[in-house]
Recover the amino acids of this structure.
């Protein structure tokens, strides 16, 4: 209150500012009104931009998904209601893309979480060696996913790739390489994702570890709890919210996988590594089947929304349990 | 005591193995660009080789590297500039507002980031076609900035929220305008947040290839798209590809290593 009066006084002293605060009707706005107006004006550009360039196209996407609309014969576009969605649910190619995406997401994120947790524990002590190693470990996160795909394609080539050659030579992979068979191609894609994103998971979990209350851990140590006991009974329960957050972020990203698949397998062999995003891009921007592609994209969006909501609920529970809130 | 030393040694060894695992594939690519073509795939890999720039001269002969770099830089700079100028003020306002809509708006911005890229791309592609922007990097900047501005808003919201209000209140009593208090008192205090946001926008727009692949033309395509099209061509060797990939990875890796503190802080800030 003191503070507000100061400002009103200062407005009286500086007539210029007082004039700028006068509305068109001539009535002076109070400080809190002016402040509210200022905050709204600061937010409007971003909100308007995101609505115009993000929400509006997404809404149009819902509209398109209700039409049989192909860019190759736009004049013949007609309303089909939920027909495209019915196609998405019954079409075996889309169904396989859905299962591929789900398997990919679950396997990749599970390994990333376990390996990331191990790395975070190993890097927990804050010294120069660990800080340097963390910086180096984070490099995969910054590399173009496109280039990541290229690197692994080159390394895994059966003819002369540094890894692929030996795999083919010793009969550990198909003689035509890991990408020649459906299951091994999907497994390889999972491996690439693990290489690319485990560092990020490790970093998130490391930040969580460093935020743990040191006194509780110290007390447990003094009471004679072994490292495993401390991990199981203190660290993991307290880390639960961070673990859930890392899981959420990675699952949402993994579910949208596109880049590395596009450059390594292109969805093949057959449709063995086709994912939902890749399927939508192919349908929409290569076959110009806008209606169906929009429906696939919207189904992906719904899946992601379900994942996100589920995890927000989980996070709230974990947070309440860990912090007693 | 020795058991403890032993477990510490194990920790160090594990960390080193992990560093090797995450670094070696990248190093293979980084060195491939300097190897003569016959050495790139020699088994076992040659560690000692006479570095050559032959791959780079191939790249310069086959690609208009300058135009590719210009497009990439334009897209990155435009996207970073637009996203920061939209997102930073919005993040500040949402953090300082007491309105109950503010938190909702902040989470709306976070949710936008989770949208799969194609869902917005297909309608956006048709929109750009209708307004005649298809084929220019402006359209890529526009859609990249939408995702980036949403991200910056949410991240700066978190940064400003953990900043005590007293700083701006002091500035206001000293006679600053409301905007002056934001610009001169609050903003310098979250400089590290702004740097981290800029870094993420840069990485995202520099690395992205789905949007430019469909939204740019031959003369406006950035490095990432050229890399992809080069990949399918028969007369381009892995060495040349490595040299081209050099341009698209090394600048970012160097910037991130130099600004590692901000990068790490930003990545973890988005979480806590």
């Amino acid at each position: 209150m003191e503070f507000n009066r100061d400002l009103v006084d200062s407005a009286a002293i500086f007539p210029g500012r007082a004039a700028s605060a006068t509305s068109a009707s001539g009535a002076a706005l109070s400080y809190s009104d002016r402040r509210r107006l200022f905050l709204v004006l600061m937010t409007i550009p971003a909100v308007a931009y995101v609505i115009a360039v993000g929400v509006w196209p997404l809404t149009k996407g819902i509209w398109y998904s209700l039409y049989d609309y192909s860019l190759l014969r736009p004049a013949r576009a007609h309303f089909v209601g939920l027909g495209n969605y019915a196609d998405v649910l019954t079409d075996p190619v889309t169904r396989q893309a859905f299962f591929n995406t789900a398997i990919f997401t679950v396997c990749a994120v599970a390994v990333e979480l376990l390996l990331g947790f191990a790395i975070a524990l190993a890097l927990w002590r804050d010294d120069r060696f660990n800080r340097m190693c963390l910086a180096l470990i984070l490099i995969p996160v910054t590399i173009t996913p496109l280039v990541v795909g290229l690197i692994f394609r080159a390394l895994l080539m059966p003819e002369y790739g540094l890894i692929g050659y030996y795999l083919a030579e010793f009969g550990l992979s198909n003689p035509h390489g890991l990408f020649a068979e459906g299951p091994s191609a999907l497994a390889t894609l999972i491996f690439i994702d693990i290489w690319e994103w485990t560092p990020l998971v490790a970093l998130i979990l490391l930040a969580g570890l460093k935020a743990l209350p040191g006194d509780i851990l110290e007390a447990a140590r003094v009471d004679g709890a072994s490292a495993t006991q401390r991990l199981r009974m203190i660290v993991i329960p307290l880390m639960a919210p961070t673990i859930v957050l890392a899981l959420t972020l990675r699952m949402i990203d993994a579910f949208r996988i596109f880049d590395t698949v596009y450059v390594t397998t292109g969805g093949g062999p057959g449709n063995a590594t086709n994912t939902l995003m890749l399927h939508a891009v192919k349908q929409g921007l290569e076959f110009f089947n806008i209606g169906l592609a929009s429906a696939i994209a919207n189904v992906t969006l719904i899946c992601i929304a379900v994942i996100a909501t589920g995890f927000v609920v989980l996070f709230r529970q974990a947070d309440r349990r860990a912090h007693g809130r | 005591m020795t058991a403890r030393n032993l477990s510490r040694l194990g920790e160090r060894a594990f960390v080193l193995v992990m560093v090797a695992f995450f670094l070696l594939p990248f190093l293979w690519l980084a060195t491939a660009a300097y190897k003569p073509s016959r050495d790139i795939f020699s088994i076992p890999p040659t560690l000692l080789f006479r570095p050559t720039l032959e791959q780079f001269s191939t790249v310069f002969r086959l690609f208009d590297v300058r135009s590719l770099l210009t497009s990439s830089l334009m897209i990155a700079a435009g996207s970073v500039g637009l996203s920061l100028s939209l997102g930073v003020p919005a993040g500040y306002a949402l953090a300082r507002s007491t309105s109950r809509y503010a938190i909702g708006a902040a989470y709306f911005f976070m949710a936008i980031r989770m949208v799969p890229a194609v869902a917005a791309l297909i309608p956006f592609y048709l929109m750009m076609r209708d307004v005649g922007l298809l084929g220019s990097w402006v359209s890529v900047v526009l859609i990249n900035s939408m995702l980036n501005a949403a991200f910056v808003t949410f991240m700066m919201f978190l940064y400003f929220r953990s900043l005590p209000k007293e700083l701006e209140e002091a500035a206001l009593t000293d006679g600053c305008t409301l905007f002056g208090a934001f610009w001169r008192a609050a903003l310098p205090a979250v400089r590290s947040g702004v740097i981290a946001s800029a870094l993420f926008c840069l990485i995202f727009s520099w690395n992205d290839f789905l949007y430019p692949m469909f939204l740019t033309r031959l003369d406006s395509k950035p490095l990432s798209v050229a890399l992809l099209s080069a990949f399918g061509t028969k007369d381009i060797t892995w060495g040349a590809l490595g040299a081209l990939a050099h341009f698209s990875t090394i600048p970012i890796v160097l910037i991130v290593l130099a600004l590692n503190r901000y990068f790490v802080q930003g990545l973890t800030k988005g979480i806590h």
Residues 1-26 of chain A have pLDDT under 50 and may be disordered. The first helix of chain A runs from residue 2 to 13. DSSP finds 15 helices and two strands in chain A. Chain A has two domains: 2-64, 86-323.
